[in-house]
Amino acid sequence: MTASIFSAAFLASQYFQLVLGYSPFGTGLRFLPWTATPVAVAPLAGMLSDRVGRRPVMVLGLLLQGAGLGWIALIATGGTSYVQLVVPLVVAGVGISMALAATPAAAMGAVAPRDMGRASGATNTLQRFGGVFGIAVASAVFAANGHLGSAAGFTAGFRPALAAVAGLSVLGAMSALAVSRGRTPEAVPVVHSAAA
Known about the structure:
By secondary structure, this protein is mainly α. About 75% of the residues lie in helices and about 0% in strands. The protein has helices at about 1-20, 25-30, 30-35, 35-50, 55-75, 80-110, 115-145, 150-175.
């Protein structure tokens, strides 16, 4: 999840500035269909994951993120208009919002209460590693196919690199299939009142 989202943001911010010609501030504003979706979607995804389980929400979310990023990789050129990018950005945003809501709950639900601190630390460490790993993969794919010297050179590297990032999201969805329902609540001893 984090390998995909961190590297997608890394690549897309450069594409918006170097190829489409937006300022850093303009790029940030145009990212809002992607980055603002957690405000609306994450709470709903959290409630949905409480009802249907973490696994389906994580799998669907990561597949949606992969689809949105793959869509952008297919249509990205020097002449792509921002309007063409809005729907795939929303699709990717909805997807990551779902995964962001369900993943921590799945990690914490997989361990006994006494192990939650360690599980939280491991989850945070893996998220940081995922971001670094994703950017390394995206950079390697970019460098093998394009360069920073021109808009055309950047686009030549951006498209396969973003497709690889979309593939990381799909790999995340496949790994989410292994998520279990979580621990069962520990039995609470029943205390009978003497008055009863």
